[in-house]
Amino acid sequence: MLKVSNLEVVYHQVVLVLKGVTLHVPRGETVALLGPNGAGKTTTLRAITGLLDIHDGRITKGHVRFDGREVAEQKADSIVGGGLAQVMEGRRVLVELSVEENLLAGAWAVSRREAAEGLERAYERFGILADRRRQQAGYLSGGEQQMLAIARALMSRPRLLLLDEPSLGLAPRIVGEVADLIRSLADDGLSILLVEQNAAMALSVASRASILENGRVVHEGTAEELADDEDVREFYLGLGGDGQTDYRRIKHYRRRRRWLS
Amino acid sequence: MSTWLQLTVSGLSLGTIYALIALGFVVIYRASAVFNFAHGELLAFGAFAMISLCGAGLPWGVALAAALVATGLLAAAVERLVLRPMIGRPVFVTIIVTIFVGSVLRSVIFIAWGPQTRGMPTPWDPLTTVDVAGASLLMNSVAALGAGAAALAAFFLLVRRTKLGVAMRATASDQETALALGIPVGRVFAATWFLAGLFAALAGIFLGMFPRNVDTNLGFVALRAFPAVIVGGLDSAWGTVLAGVLLGVLEVLCQGYVNPYLGEFGRNFHAVFPYVVMILFLIVKPHGLFGTREVERV
Ligand SMILES: Nc1ncnc2c1ncn2[C@@H]1O[C@H](COP(=O)(O)OP(=O)(O)OP(=O)(O)O)[C@@H](O)[C@H]1O
Ligand SMILES: [Mg+2]
Fold first, then answer.
1. What is the domain class of A2-83+158-227 according to CATH?
2. Which among A121, A137, A196, B70 could bridge A202 via Cys, Cβ 3.0 to 4.6 Å?
3. Residue A2 belongs to what H/E stretch?
């Protein structure tokens, strides 16, 4: 469904951030993209969705194919129109608009009738949004805002959904709810590319995962393989051999990895 | 009583015109973070276009519609051709660019229509009055009030009730999010500038009907709507409209009731009065009536 091959991205014509990223999201599957801060996860999503422009970034090499069509040179609105939606990092709820207007803002690509149906579906799935439909979105809690951001992305009836760190800044219980939601979206047949730093959560919902470090994919495999991998257990799941967290070693490891690459 | 009513109505119509001008400034600023110093020239262009179209024999209503659309298109073209390539540049760059565009437009208007003062055609005799509650009100000013209020109401319906309105507000509040949601932000800019141009033309045409003269300096009237922008709060459409109407009323009441007591000094006191209010606001409430705190640029 989504094939990213050998992608290179440069910001401001000088900063090379992605150094040949290859990713594959098969139809109907959830794929996780993990990696530390600054690895280039968000940049990868921007490249897929036509948002590099406003960051003065450019694809200098490689391809992004969505259903076999090259989208690397397309504009953001036609990419969304083609069935690819995303939830940006930090939720980006439109705080002055009401909950319902936020949802409608996600419905540009579809007809008025489909937008109305979309609202109905959203309210059915997210009861809390139905209760608050007239309220300003800025007054929702962090978890509710995340739900709104996801519901809003669904309004364009996407076939592939990109999620950028949906668990960021949420309490563990809410992270669990987000994970459940992602599973249920996948059950409905949606293909998902999930960017996360919370590897435990991501590996619990994804079938496959890639690990991005410093603009390169350094690891790729099924979720089980990665969850069992020594390095991943130690440095992404924070589990030492004996199941204990060792933050000092994580830091040390990251520093060393930066050095080496 | 009747003087009071007369002054209030003519204040309201002047205020509606200020509101139309100020609203144009504000929607452009909110959508594209551009402070459009060419706004007054758009207004003058609309007025001259109306005069020429009527002169060419078009029926008044048709000429009005054509002048409004032409000015809207001109504004959209300015955005597309001059300001779009400037996206991402510092605010002062876009300010300088709009000042430049304004002076080019002013020269073009001067070349096309010359220096002489002209009257704005009206479908009724310009001195027609209507009697309301014992006061005889100038038809021109009642018409300005009616048309302006209708335009403002239509704008708020558009913004609140339509898909384009939601897209405009989404773009104004977070451009990247709007893009990510699939909103064609470029087309939203074009629509915003088109509307702002249309409102400017409407204001210009009715301003031309009031004192009944139009010359190349008409554009400077936009500066007189500036206090409304500040008092309303640079990023609040509602606030701006309210402030525009209020300042128009205050200006005319001031002209009627305060000026006579100020002797020679008072001859034009009403014209500075809105600026006095604006300066008071800048001191006491710099974000305006409804503006948000982040906006402190101008
Ligand atoms: N607009 C930009 N201009 C220049 N450099 C940028 C820009 N955006 C990101 N970068 C740089 O690109 C690199 C990758 O950033 P990116 O945001 O893609 O990382 P990330 O993996 O999403 O990190 P995080 O987990 O913190 O969100 C970082 O070094 C960052 O500083
Ligand atoms: Mg990121």
1. alpha beta
2. A196
3. strand A2-11
Q: Which residues of A touch B295 (CB under 8 A)?
A: none
Cβ count within 10 A of residue B73: 15
Contact B179 A104 (CB under 8 A): no
- Partner residue facing B177 (CB), from A88, A107, A108: A88
Determine whether the interchain pair A105/B181 forms a contact, defined as Cβ–Cβ distance below 8 Å.
yes
From CA B77, how far away is CA B70, in angstroms rounded? Answer: 10
Is A110's Cβ below 8 Å from some Cβ in B? Answer: no
In A, which residues are within 8 Å of B167 by CB distance? 105, 108
**Ligand 1 nearest-atom number relative to CA A215:** 14
Distance (Å) from the alpha carbon of A138 to chain B's nearest alpha carbon = 12
CA distance B61 to chain A (A): 33
Task: Enter the pTM of the model.
Answer: 0.87
Per-residue pLDDT reduced to its tens digit, B248-291: 888 888 888 887 777 776 677 787 888 888 888 888 877 777 76
Q: Say what the pLDDT of residue B298 is.
A: 31
Pairing of strands A208-213, A30-34: parallel
Are A77 and B169 within 8 A, CB to CB? no
**Is the CB of A153 inside 8 Å of chain B's CB atoms?**
yes
B183/A108 touch (CB, cutoff 8 Å), yes or no: yes
Above pLDDT 70, what percent of chain B?
95
Q: Which helix (H) or strand (E) holds A183?
A: helix A172-187
Start-to-end Cα distance in chain B? 41
Q: Is A88 exposed, middle or buried (0-12, 13-18, 19+ CB in 10 A)?
A: buried
Taking CA–CA distances from B186, the nearest residue in chain A reads A77
Domain with CATH 3.40.50.300 in chain A: 2-83+158-227
State the angle between helix axes of B2-32 and B237-253 in degrees (0 to 180), rounded to the nearest 10: 150
What residue spans of chain B are helical by DSSP H? 2-32, 39-55, 60-78, 91-113, 139-161, 163-173, 175-180, 185-209, 221-224, 226-232, 237-253, 269-284
CA distance B176 to B197: 25
pLDDT digits (tens, 9 = 90+) for A15-28: 999 999 999 999 99
E runs forming strands in A44-103: 57-66, 69-70, 84-87
Please work out whether the CB of residue A46 comes within 6 Å of at least one atom of ligand 1: no
At B291 the pLDDT is 66
Segment A58-117, tens digit of pLDDT: 999 999 999 999 998 899 999 999 999 999 999 999 999 999 999 999 999 999 999 999
Residue owning tokens 């128009």: B248
- Which residues are B137's β-sheet partners? B130
Contact criterion met (CB below 8 Å) for B208 and B47: yes
Is the per-residue pLDDT at B212 higher than 50? Answer: yes
Closest residue to atom 13 of ligand 1, CA basis:
A38
